[in-house]
């Protein structure tokens, strides 16, 4: 069963020195816009640009558990805060907790990648977005959404 996770991101503040290689700072507002059964529709709502990721969760699931990491990063001259990455979506709450634990361990060990199992027992390997000299995890969350239309 396919679910669609739609996310948004917009810049709420951006400052940069006018000189070359000057300091910069960007603040983003990002989050999950919606989680629903797979739809063919896509596009814009309000002034948010939406990005869609599709995940194959357990058939018959009435809830979708989405693991998300919020983080900041940058370079020698500045930083960007408020970034977000959807790690994975699950129909099985236990699998979501296992993924959360694996991602937490990857962050704590400063590991380049994280390995976990999806709802169907397939191994997934992803880059740890917090593995970077300038990256910093703000929060690692599991949010549960009720799937309507079943």
Notable characteristics:
mainly beta; 8 strands; six-stranded mixed β-sheet; about 150 residues
How is this structure best described in words?
Helices cover 11% and strands 55% of the residues. The chain is mostly beta strands and 150 residues long. The chain has one domain. The strands form two sheets. The chain has a six-stranded mixed beta sheet, with helices on one face. Strands 6-7 form a two-stranded antiparallel ribbon. Strand 1 and strand 2 (24-37) form a beta hairpin. The longest helix has 16 residues, at 93-108. The protein is globular and about 55 Å long. The chain starts with a strand and ends with a strand. 23% of the residues are buried.
Write the layout of secondary structure elements.
Layout: E1 2-16, E2 24-37, E3 50-56, E4 63-75, E5 78-90, H1 93-108, E6 113-117, E7 123-127, E8 136-146
Parallel strand pairs: 2-5
Antiparallel strand pairs: 1-2, 1-3, 4-5, 4-8, 6-7
Task: Give the helices and strands as they follow along the chain.
Answer: EEEEEHEEE
Report the strand count.
Answer: 8
Low-confidence stretches: 42-47
Terminal CA distance reads 11 Å
How many structural domains can be distinguished in the coordinates? 1
Largest sheet composition: 6 strands, mixed
The percent range for strand residues is over 45%
Helix fraction? 10-25%
Structural class: mainly beta
Q: How many H/I helical runs?
A: 1
Shape label: globular
Outline of the structure:
This protein is mainly beta and 150 residues long. It is built from one helix and eight strands, in the order βββββαβββ. Residues 42-47 have low confidence and may be disordered.
